[in-house]
Amino acid sequence: MRIIYKLSFVLTAILLLAGCKKYLDINTNPAVPQTSKAELLLPPILFQMTNGTSQDYRFIWKVTQNLIGASTDDASLVWEKHSYTAASDNGGVIWRMTYVDLGLNLENLINDAVANQKYEYAAIGYAIKAWAYQMTTDMYGPIILDEAFTPGLLKFPYHDQPEVYAKVRYYGQQAIKYSNMTSPVSYASQLAGTTGDGIYKGDMAKWRKFVYAVYALQYSHLVNKPEFRTQYADSVTKYTNLSFANESESATVYFSASSTDDTNPFGPTLGYINTSGTTSTYYGRISTTILNYLAGGMKGTATTNPTTSTDPRLSRMLPASTATATLGRYIAGTPTQGSSTSGLPIVFGSIPTGAITYNGKYIFADAARYPLMTYSQLQFAKAEALFLQGKTAEAYTAYVAGIRGHMAFYNTYGRASKTPDAAITDAEINTYMASAEVAQNASTLTLADIMGQKYIAQWGWGGMEQWCDLRKHHYNATTFRQFYQIPTADLLLGGKYAYRFRPRYNSEYVWNSDELRKWGGLDVDYMTKETWFSQP
């Protein structure tokens, strides 16, 4: 996929070097050919969905305690302490993804597809646009909306979340409209090919389910609104039911790992987590939060440094220590504490004897598919919505489906390592489902059970939704039993947790600071101000 991404820039460079006046005359933006075909634009757009989110997830994960660092450097710990690196684009890549890397390429894809009756591409384009703007507003709060690509505009107004949420639903409606239209010319072979639709191979029914998944998650964010129990919860259930039927329909981006140009950004080769083959201490270390959930802490007391667990996902998702003192044990670091835990393994596991790089583990492998949204994630969102409505029997059904769905997620997508772990067997699943770690009936189900299992299901990929969950429940220790409650003195922005990231520094703070000032964006503690979706 990255080969196509590179080729698009090579073609652009050739056109620019040619200095053709006709080329300049027909394009309002010479750097981005507006006559590009949708078929050529789609593969690099799909790559940018993974490239943009993966770079920022490294920092979101520090906030959500999915993965932490093993360094005492301020640059590593500042994010774990719910602050930011000043004058840096860290945490601003999703902003760039939406407005630059997808940006005009996505607009051109949609425009070409609509103008030339390539309805499948129009549907995919609008579905991706809905997803991207949802991600961006949930990351930053107020964002640029319709004005983003206005020619000649140098400063851009922001729109708050109610307006953006509505626009996301509009983009989704457009996607569904075009997905139900038939193009005069068949693009089935292009979409199904290796340089086509790397998510669903042109299957429009599944792209409709993708849109419904965006809707379901959007409504699930609004648990604090007075309308949630009477309106929005029903929408969560409705759109979850219209979305993925099982994990095989989850939205994931394909990578072949046949070369470094077609490699999962979370794999060991590209180095987003491990700094190009070296063992970075800034990212990718196991936290006590996920280990405790997998080691008996879902409903009980977690085992310290275990060698095994009733939960079969422990050995499949996390690497065991290779340090002499803790060999074969699963160990983790406490968020904000840096290198106080020795021998903390990186998510890839260990480098095999005689090799120079990691084989990868779980979804942290070069050939792993990159998850965007999943069946199990949605089942837990549905369970939460039903539980908050008092419909505990239905919530319990969705809760069980979510747990079993995530076991299937591992078996479907989590075994792409060069030396994959064994599949989770039915016997292992049944043993876990009958254990004290799982609610055995609707009367014993709690919100903590649902959100804890959702934390596991989203660990290592669902960074944005994980953070939305924590924020809408205000980092509640009862709801998230194993989330490390950071001492007030260690929270760098006035003892408060983070509720938004600051927009991209080099575009917004350098060029658009007047607009930021209107929203409080120049305040030191802007990162701790709640966004609309989590407020009452």
Describe the structure.
It is a single chain. The longest helix is centred in the first third of the chain and has 27 residues. This protein starts with a helix and ends in an 18-residue tail after the last helix. The relative contact order is 0.13. It has 19 helices and four strands. With 536 residues, the chain is mainly alpha-helical. The chain has a domain of 273 residues: Serine Threonine Protein Phosphatase 5, Tetratricopeptide repeat.
What is the secondary structure topology, with strand pairs?
Blueprint: H1 2-18, H2 21-25, H3 38-64, E1 67-68, H4 74-80, H5 93-115, H6 119-140, H7 161-179, H8 188-192, H9 204-220, H10 228-242, E2 251-253, E3 285-286, H11 288-294, H12 313-317, E4 370-373, H13 375-388, H14 392-413, H15 426-433, H16 447-458, H17 463-472, H18 505-511, H19 513-518
Antiparallel strand pairs: 1-3, 2-4
Question: What's the quick description here?
Answer:
With 536 residues, the protein is mainly alpha-helical.
Share of helical residues: 40-55%
Based on secondary structure, the structural category is mainly alpha
What is the CATH topology classification name of the domain at 36-264 and 491-534? Serine Threonine Protein Phosphatase 5, Tetratricopeptide repeat
Order of helices and strands: HHHEHHHHHHHEEHHEHHHHHHH
Q: How far do the termini sit from each other?
A: 43 Å
Number of strands: 4
In the CATH hierarchy, what is the class of the domain at 36-264 and 491-534? Mainly Alpha
